[in-house]
């Protein structure tokens, strides 16, 4: 399973879903726009350590992974939106039909990748206008699954989000690849 994130990622929005997926037997890779480590945040403002990067997004392919997780934090998706390789990775993942999950500000990635139109999504309140303007039907629910996309509003919804993504990601056909196929 790929976790696409950059500097500014909200720590709990990467850490808790990753733990839930790992506990369910998945293998997770942090994929990013730079090598080394990415800086995490707590409530967007406080330093919250780092996460090691397993792979650069430009070297990753949808064929290498069974599912994609897009955590939030306001800075993280904004950085990803500026990188063509990250935008293409999100677009290709959604179009592949493989499961994609995003929480809080993470659904901003769907706007830039032009895959929000016609989808029923939820997100943090401050980006709902952007989602609507991109053609999404925006709802205020803890967790929403529309086809292969699962979205959630905020860290408060992590228990429901984590349970749902474990369920949705478990349905994904397994990929056999050199990257480990998770």
Structure, explained:
- There is one protein chain.
- This protein is α/β, with parallel strands linked by helices and 182 residues long.
- It is built from six helices and twelve strands.
- Strands 6-3-1-7-8-12-11 form a seven-stranded mixed sheet, sandwiched between helices. It has a three-stranded mixed sheet with strand order 2-4-5. A two-stranded parallel ribbon has the order 9-10.
Sum up the structure in keywords:
182 residues; alpha/beta; seven-stranded mixed sheet; three-stranded mixed sheet; 24% strand; globular; disordered C terminus
First-last Cα distance? 4 Å
Helix content: 25-40%
Spatial extent as radius of gyration = 14 Å
Helical run tally: 6
The ordered H/E elements are EEHEEEEEHHEHEHEEEH
The poorly predicted ranges are 176-182
Class from helix and strand fractions:
alpha/beta
Largest sheet: 7 strands, mixed
Strand order of the largest sheet: 6-3-1-7-8-12-11
How big a fraction of the residues is strand?
A: 15-25%
Tell me how many strands there are.
Answer: 12
Question: What order do the helices and strands come in, and which of them pair?
Answer:
Layout: E1 2-4, E2 9-10, H1 11-23, E3 29-32, E4 37-42, E5 46-52, E6 55-56, E7 68-70, H2 75-81, H3 84-96, E8 100-103, H4 108-112, E9 120-121, H5 128-133, E10 137-138, E11 143-146, E12 149-152, H6 158-170
Parallel strand pairs: 1-3, 1-7, 2-4, 3-6, 7-8, 8-12, 9-10
Antiparallel strand pairs: 4-5, 11-12
């Amino acid at each position: 399973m790929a976790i696409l994130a950059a500097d500014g990622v909200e720590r709990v929005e990467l850490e808790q879903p990753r733990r839930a997926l790992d506990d369910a037997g998945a293998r997770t890779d942090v994929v990013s726009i730079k090598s080394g480590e990415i800086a995490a945040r707590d409530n967007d403002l406080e330093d919250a350590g780092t996460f090691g990067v397993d792979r650069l997004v430009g070297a990753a392919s949808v064929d290498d992974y069974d599912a994609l997780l897009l955590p939030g934090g306001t800075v993280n998706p904004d950085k990803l939106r500026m990188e063509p390789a990250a935008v293409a990775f999100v677009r290709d993942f959604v179009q592949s039909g493989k499961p994609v999950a995003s929480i809080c500000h993470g659904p901003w990635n769907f706007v830039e990748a032009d895959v929000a139109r016609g989808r029923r999504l939820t997100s943090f309140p401050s980006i709902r206008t952007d989602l609507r303007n991109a053609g999404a039907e925006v709802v205020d629910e803890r967790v929403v699954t529309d086809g292969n996309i699962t979205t959630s509003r905020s860290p408060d919804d992590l228990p429901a989000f984590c349970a749902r993504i474990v369920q949705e990601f478990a349905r994904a056909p397994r990929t056999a690849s050199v990257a480990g196929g998770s």
